Amino acid sequence: MKKTMRKAITLICALAFTAGPLLDAATAQADVARPTSNMSRIKDLAEVEGVRQNQLVGYGLVVGLQGTGDSLNNSPFTRQSLTGMLERLGVNTRGANLRTANVAAVMVTANLPAFSTQGTRLDVTVSALGDSNSLEGGTLLVTPLMGADGEVYAVAQGSVAVAGFGFEGDAARIQRGVPTVGRISNGALIEREIEFSLAEKRHLRLALRNPDFTTARRIATAINDFIGDDAAAPSDPSTVHLRIPESYGGNMIELLTEIEQLRVEPDQPAKIVVDERSGIIVMGRDVRVSTVAVAQGNLTVTITEEPQVVQPLPFSDGETAVVPRTAIEVFGEDGQLAVVPEGVTLRELVDGLNALGIGPRDLIAILQAIKAAGALQADIEVM
């Protein structure tokens, strides 16, 4: 009986000591496989050299408008374009008095995606160029779309879809959205491709969307650890040079497909972005302040206009007059002095400043004053 108990105790202890490292290893492996909330994919942090869109622009005419087009007297470019278009169609209107209001001159814009092939379609945006009131119901005539090099890469044509509308009468007007801007879904046909052979590249550059020394180094380290070779190296805060290793057989597409899914924790500088026009304040998570005391006072000025009517004396030649009466009151409120301790987090900083009962515009002035005092370890960017 005692031997049986000893064997059971020995077996239980052996299982306990064996299961402990197994559980710890499984937990550690699960922690490594589970991405943290601050980690992002490389494809979301950087762009590949050469994989980009190209802007296209063109000038055209929209016809079929219900009297909401350009007035030809005020838009000479519309008159010239209309006359030239009719002449190409065999209609001579030179010297004629054109009074149509169903035509509008427009600018057509589009983005040519990377690796777009000939014959595919893309969306275009149509914007009025003259004094047209609305493009609703109009049709864009054939419009060549050119790139920055002056070459035609696509041709646009189709019915314009306008989301906004506007109506007016003799004494009132209502408008929603912008009726002078429309869109044509799949309205352009690609006629020329941009040659770029990505698969044959032996070296590429990854351009960081938010340049940073630490983030560039972390991206290069993650790629080298995954490949097992020194294939990536940062050259500056915004660029990581990538060399295709021999194990991938010269296939750059396969290499990019694998490394773009790697997760890296980006590093952000301590920065506060301020928009004084709208009162918007955006703070980074690494913003820190030294010990500083803050006080804020409010000054309220109330101006009341109470005009009085003054009557002339009886049987006099005077006239009734209105005499202005203005009352001005000034109220001053002294704010309390609040101490912001050293090394507080972003949440504690915001909570402490909100406790003073101040608005966004006063908060902007306080942050700038703390920065001027040298107690704010962050950069303030005013938009």
From TrEMBL:
<keyword id="KW-0574">Periplasm</keyword>
<keyword id="KW-0966">Cell projection</keyword>
<keyword id="KW-0975">Bacterial flagellum</keyword>
<feature type="signal peptide">
    <location>
        <begin position="1"/>
        <end position="30"/>
    </location>
</feature>
<comment type="similarity">
    <text>Belongs to the FlgI family.</text>
</comment>
<comment type="function">
    <text>Assembles around the rod to form the L-ring and probably protects the motor/basal body from shearing forces during rotation.</text>
</comment>
<dbReference type="GO" id="GO:0071973">
    <property type="term" value="P:bacterial-type flagellum-dependent cell motility"/>
</dbReference>
<dbReference type="GO" id="GO:0005198">
    <property type="term" value="F:structural molecule activity"/>
</dbReference>
<protein>
    <recommendedName>
        <fullName>Flagellar P-ring protein</fullName>
    </recommendedName>
</protein>
<dbReference type="GO" id="GO:0009428">
    <property type="term" value="C:bacterial-type flagellum basal body, distal rod, P ring"/>
</dbReference>
<dbReference type="Pfam" id="PF02119">
    <property type="entry name" value="FlgI"/>
</dbReference>
<keyword id="KW-0969">Cilium</keyword>
<comment type="subunit">
    <text>The basal body constitutes a major portion of the flagellar organelle and consists of four rings (L,P,S, and M) mounted on a central rod.</text>
</comment>
<keyword id="KW-0282">Flagellum</keyword>
<dbReference type="GO" id="GO:0030288">
    <property type="term" value="C:outer membrane-bounded periplasmic space"/>
</dbReference>
<keyword id="KW-0732">Signal</keyword>
<dbReference type="InterPro" id="IPR001782">
    <property type="entry name" value="Flag_FlgI"/>
</dbReference>
